[in-house]
Amino acid sequence: MNTTPRIDAQAGGLAARFEATFGAPPHGVWAAPGRVNLIGEHTDYNEGFVLPFAIDKRARTAVRLRGDTLQKGSPHQGALREDTTVRLLSTSGGQVLVLADAAKLTPGAVKSWAKYPLGVVWALQQHGIQVPGFDLLLDSDVPLGAGLSSSHAIECAVITALNDLTGAGLTAEEMVRLTQHAENAFVGAPTGIMDQSASLRGALGHAVFLDCRDQTVQLVPFAAQEAGLVLLVIDTKVSHSHADGGYASRRASCELGAETLGVKALRDVAIGELEKARELLDPVTFRRVRHVVTENERVLQTVDMLRSQGPAHIGGLLDASHASMRDDFEISCPELDLAVDTARGNGAIGARMTGGGFGGSAIALTPVQHEQQVRDAVVRAFADAGHTAPDIFTVTPAAGAERIL
Ligand code: GLA
Fold this sequence. Notes:
Blueprint: H1 11-22, E1 28-39, E2 49-65, H2 77-81, E3 85-90, E4 98-101, H3 115-126, E5 134-140, H4 150-166, H5 172-187, H6 194-201, E6 206-211, E7 216-221, E8 229-235, H7 245-261, H8 274-280, H9 283-308, H10 315-329, H11 334-345, E9 350-354, E10 361-367, H12 371-384, E11 391-395, E12 402-403
Parallel strand pairs: 3-5
Antiparallel strand pairs: 1-2, 1-12, 2-5, 2-6, 3-4, 6-7, 8-10, 8-11, 9-10
Helix pairs in contact: 3-4, 3-5, 4-5, 4-6, 5-6, 7-9, 8-9, 9-10, 11-12
This protein binds alpha-D-galactopyranose.
């Protein structure tokens, strides 16, 4: 897939920088976006529904395979085929070259940002796909630690590149599962499939309505601008890793709930069954289950609403989603609540935290004429509360992963 390069103003500069660094031009440049989730939180690993979109911020990777640098017939050709050296460089941070051996990767052993590209290499190998050595230069404008899936953007850019370069012929669905395997088993974060699906399968102007049970996708137009709205992201600057305990413990509660209720996944519990579930579950597990069951329903309603009436009508669903995450799933934090409440109090028509929680970003769907007021009010509220200043910007639904040079 994605073999026809599309125009991206940054691609040429990255390729030139790659050549200056590694001494030869890249075989191509690939990009994959971060995401926001409009609604459907912690529903993905419960085989439910999500509605994220790919944002107009992305990770770009210039890549050159090392194994084919010698001409056919060269006496060194065999040796180079066995060259499994991987050299990785990122334009951000300390710009330290990371060296690894693609044939000797160990889950959990890599600590730097290199765990994302190397996790992909490892997952491909686990899947029986040979990955030769390669050089890679990464440049990303997806904010780090903001809950916008900067790590998945890297993984999706890398897997798209390696899929093209090795001729592996993987489908988007397969690449989603492989990057999930990289995250779960190599990086050590027990996350679901939402982020990769948005990054790999997103489309300009659309949200990705994903059924996480069978991976079917329907693209739903999200034309905020035409409705006089902007989607503001408020990055609280509270950063949290999904490899820490909170995410895993929520996942464990959901699994306990499903097992106690005798269903394969919480996707199979209907709203009307919640009262019965209350009798069978301890109070905390019940609230976790109620969040997932009602959140699935809110995703379906949001999709219906977007299709029938447009984005100006989904505000109440966003608010209800936030309340459910704050009170039932308990994954919000004071900064996220302050961002949401302040945005709502200053003209946003709906707001919620987005992503895994415990920090990261909130989204606020806001009429254009109130945008500045919301921005000013949130900055002021954070200063008054003594919180680190938030970063506030708008996002629009962008294209998914693609080759750009
Ligand atoms: C993180 C995970 C996703 C999903 C969300 C919560 O972003 O990576 O798989 O579970 O949290 O909806």
